Amino acid sequence: MLIVGLGNPGSDYEKTRHNIGFMVIDELRKRLSASKQSSSNFKGELFKFQNPVSLENHFLLKPLTYMNLSGESVIKVKNFYKIDKVVVIHDDLDLPFGTLRFKFGGGHGGHNGLKSIDAHISREYARVRMGIGKPEHKGEVASYVLSDFSPKEQEHLDEWIGHTADAIEFLLKNSLEDTSSQYAKKGSPC
User: Fold this and answer.
1) Which of 12, 101, 125, 128 has the highest count of CB atoms within 10 angstroms of its CB?
2) Annotated active-site positions, please?
3) pLDDT at 93 over 80
4) Assembly and interactions (predicted)?
5) Is the pTM of this model over 0.85?
């Protein structure tokens, strides 16, 4: 399984709403003692870990292509390791902050990272949708997703990232439907 967290590289974007996928990958990397794989061909940071029961290799990926070109990194890793199952963790404007939803396939909803992945590997992958809420005005979307979480949201961020990482660990051994029924979460009161 290839688990992809979406975000943008660089310290300017590190704590922004758009980087929630990167934050979950960082948490999983620590928990699973994933080892870094070196190859500039992958256009991203790639980590490998092994399922202790099945001894199957799994991968964590943070594309470093910037959000709009995420699919370039995903296709390279997917093809090189001949991976069938792909899971993408991403921010979702259509869900309130703190919401966690799971689905397979579907549209990109205007998310440029998903749009790029769809163009490279098709829509046939699992999505872990992390709600970040919406700005008051539609014209503020770009600045909103590239802004840091509010102080109130930051109070809940670690717990939410941990909950999402728990869900991904569960997903390694269970179906997407079972993971959804166990870990789907409504937004917090921010």
Assistant:
1) 128
2) 18
3) yes
4) Monomer.
5) yes
